[in-house]
Amino acid sequence: MSTQEIAEAVMELPEEDRLELARRIVAGIAAQREISGEIARAVEGIEDVVAGRVRGLSEAEFRDALK
């Protein structure tokens, strides 16, 4: 099975299953402790947006924030 086929199959999973898979992948990555912490915080941020605990930026807001 190719990476593309795996990605397509994963995208068909329910949202909660995809989040759990993302957690497991991040946890399994052998990275420096500091980088692992940053990745974990990023995943938590994504989960907050998906769960509706925080509002994500619109494209315009994102582009403005980069300026």
Report on this structure:
0% of the residues are buried. The protein starts with a helix and ends with a helix. It has helices at 3-11, 15-28, 33-51, 59-66. Helix 2 runs antiparallel to helix 3. The mean pLDDT is 86. It has one domain (14-66). It is mainly alpha-helical and 67 residues long.
Please give the structural blueprint:
Elements (H helix, E strand, L loop, with lengths): L2 H9 L3 H14 L4 H19 L7 H8 L1
Which tags fit this structure?
globular, single chain, 67 residues, 4 helices, mainly alpha
Provide the succession of SSEs.
HHHH
Low-confidence stretches: none
Q: Work out the strand percent.
A: under 5%
Mean pLDDT across all amino acids: 86
Radius of gyration: 15 Å
Q: Counting H and I runs of at least 4 residues, what is the number of helices?
A: 4
* C-alpha geometry: globular
Global structural class:
mainly alpha
Q: Give the termini distance in whole angstroms.
A: 42 Å
* Total count of strands: 0
Q: How many separate domains?
A: 1
Major pleated sheet: none
Approximately how much helix is present in the residues? over 70%
